[in-house]
Amino acid sequence: MNNNHATISKMHDMRMHGMARAFQTTLETGMHSQFTLDELLSHLIDAEWDDRHFRKRERLRKTANFRYQASFEELDFTLNRNLDKNHMLRFSDCGWVKEHRDILITGPTGVGKSFIGSALGNLACDHGFKVYYQIAGRLLGSLKAAKKDGTYLKTLPKILKNDVLILEDFGLSPFDEEGRLALLDILEDRHGRKSTIFLSLHGTGSSVTPPSPMPLWIELSTAHSELSFRENQSERKCTEISSTNLPPQVTISAG
Q: How far is the C-alpha of 226 from the C-alpha of 19, rounded, in Å?
């Protein structure tokens, strides 16, 4: 028994906490006598893997800075907004992250853009991807400050490290020249390498097309209470960012 206590202590020292808890449980319940050696080893490894996966997921969620702790399962498809469950299931395997696709979610205030964006971000965390959620204006403001204190070039790689960047209130307020250049730096860095989710008030009347294969477009509308999806595989690149609001005045021309 003392040898077992020493083994559990060593497991904790090696940060194998899930395995240690599982081993202690099998000893306390007498289940260890029901396992063969290979079955016990498999049980302990599974417990450690599950524990590490859970702790990583919680760490990713904490650092993501989500507005809502919304899960994909919490999306309500019974509300009178025709939220298509089959369409939403297209995102459930996070293939859009693996393929470095962008998602553009548009619609007026109160239709659930932030909640859906948070749910997609949480889903990405569940799959082990690093996510960062931030209001677009605040992110650009922090980049302006970084330019002044000389840390700009160190800050950009930190943003790039996130597999998914979620920008809330994208284009809500005008961008000045410095803000537009910072935004262009972010989008060029992420183009074809990472995924970005844009949450914007502006609908399909805007010319917003982030610089990547055309984004998966979710348009929420209170007028028709519907959610529609648009997808196009054509390659685009950003050639101009206009001097006023973004969107609808972002010009992305085919290259």
A: 48
